[in-house]
Design a protein that fits this description.
The protein is of the alpha+beta class. Among the domains are: about 160 residues, Serine Threonine Protein Phosphatase 5, Tetratricopeptide repeat, CATH 1.25.40; about 80 residues, Tetratricopeptide repeat domain (Serine Threonine Protein Phosphatase 5, Tetratricopeptide repeat, Alpha Horseshoe); about 80 residues, Tetratricopeptide repeat domain (Serine Threonine Protein Phosphatase 5, Tetratricopeptide repeat, Alpha Horseshoe); about 160 residues, Histidine kinase-like ATPase, C-terminal domain (Heat Shock Protein 90), CATH 3.30.565. The protein has 28 helices and seven strands. The protein has a five-stranded mixed beta sheet. Strands 1-3 form a two-stranded antiparallel ribbon. Helix 3 runs antiparallel to helix 4, helix 15 runs antiparallel to helix 16 and helix 15 runs parallel beside helix 17. The chain starts with a helix and ends with a helix.
Amino acid sequence: MTNSIFVYFSFLLISIFSFEEVQAQNSKTKELQNIITKLIDNGKANSLELAIQYRDLGFEYYQNNEYSEALFNYLKAIEILKDQEEPKALSECLHNVGNLSFFLGEYSSAIDYYTQALEIRKALNDEKGIASGYNNIANVYSKLGNYTQAIDYYNYSIEIKERFNDQKGITSSLKNIATIYYFQSNYINALETNLKALKISESIQDSLGIAFVYNNMALIYEKQEKYAEALAFYQKSLGIKEAMDDLRGIAVTLHNIGKIYEIRSAYDSALLVLGRSLDISKKIEDKEGISSTMNSLGMIYQSIGDSKNAEENFLASLKIDEELNDKRGILRSKNNLGQFYLGQGNLPLARNMSEAAIILGKELGTKEDLKDSYYTLSKIDEREGKYLSALQNYQAFTAYRDSLDLQNLESKTAQLQAEYEYDKQLAIIKAEQKALDLENEKELQAQKFQRNILIVYTLFILFVAFILYKNYQKEKREKERSEKRSIELEKANQVKAKIFSIIGHDLRGPINSLHQLLELYQNDLMDEEEFREVLPQLYKNVGGIMLVLDNLLKWSLVEMKMMQTNPKKISIAKSIKTLQDFFSTLTDQKGIIIKAEVENDSEVLADNDQVQVILRNLIGNAIKYSKEGGEILIKSSSSDKEVIISVQDYGTGMNQDLVKKLFKNTLVESKTGTTGEKGTGLGLSLCKYYTEVNGGRIWVESQEGFGSTFYFSLPKAEVKEAILEK
């Protein structure tokens, strides 16, 4: 019976550790490992971001019960966080390393890490963290058998939890205190504390907490040999834990049910249930659970006469307990081995185990275990003929047995159970009264119903009004869109009219003059010398016609969305040199000098034909509006990302109203040049479109009577190539 009591509370202590992080999926582990690798490769080996990833990976390993890997990653996070100004994250990691140290049986390290975390949380005035730290330090002291200090720390934790009304946390600490009372054989205090925890758990609907207390109640009934009642409470607890998929809790309860079957001599059922419990403990790598279950299996094998399996299970359990430095587990194993060796007639080993159990039992103050140890030792003395020693040990046995006061426990249990049922009935009565109050309130609700109908009707009217208003707004928007389309259509008609104007006036006149001139020459009405005199003017007219036709064609392609851009590396210096030759006849006629101050290495990535159109129109305009004998200056400058080209003339210039109209997606009326040259207004529209489609911009500075400077920029070749490659 002592063994079943022990295993439940050992598991319970682990189950109630205060972890507040959410459950995560195993698939996240690899993702976090990849993030950590990338951060290290990118030179962020000591960054806060890396520390947080180590922390999260540690938690993932903890969720998967991989405690060693979890500990490694948390320690990595702590190493980085100590150099960062993140005390909250550091305290969290220290606290969790304390938890892992506890699970790995490193109790001194656990207290050290909990204490470090506690000091930081006190400085931050983090009450929840402080309460959790006190609770977990108490868990370690309880495991080490230092029950007085454990109860003190649990009470510190409860005191803080009451300040921020952490009912679930209070229940957890109360159950731990009840555990200690039970190990000290103070069953009445254990019962009172458990019932107090049960009331809180029921009030907050904490299913897992209720399940734990059901286990505690079952242990009390088991102590009174009321096995049917104990089994009923275990079954209730198991149902809750299975619904919540609490594997550790399921293993605990199955183990306790197996012990009931053992006491009732239903050994086959006991072996079956304990086998399930052992499988679950192995799956979740719970060494304490494995040890406790193997000890119980040893007791069953001993009862059915299988000495070999009994001894193997007892010794395997003792080995695990010694590895974990689990004093309660060691005490349990040595007590059972003492009884086993006594049954086998191996009195020296039986004495050795029983005397060691008595020393440990006195250290831990567990009366139940001391009672069993003294009884075994008295039987050993009796067999060895040491009757005086046997009498003394038997007297010690009876003294511990009587101190357990089981008769008073039974009456106290009945009393407390009655009080609990009374409180429960009182709660039911209050609930019924509340239902009656609700019934009375229905009459008031009926009175409010008519008022609510009126409110609903009013809301309906408002809703209809809202729908009508939305329809009005919709019609208004449709009307605005229609008006906008009309304006766009008007603009399109203006564009069409502009095209016809260009064809009918700007092209028809020059072509007609050319035709008449050629007709005169053809009919020998003009000799060779006269023809040569008008040849420069003829060349000028034909050049103008070509420029107008070229602009008109390209502008039409733009308007029809049929223009394609093929960017290539272009030398601005070469493009300007080509155009200087192209315009040489015109410049010679007007006596204009074109100066080019262009960097030889000025290269852009753009469509060559479109750049030629931009330069041709800007230089052509500069010639058109320059005075005879004037000068045109073409310059380039480079920045990190772009090349800026400027075309400057000292001609007629423009007023500011005209400057503001340029480049506004509308055709602007072209002015006549200084020697009567005419234009279409298409050139600058094309310049704007081609500049922007190649990733540049265009603008102008002008003063009437002093000339104009047109600027446009294009992306630098190496910059744009790098962007395209990327």
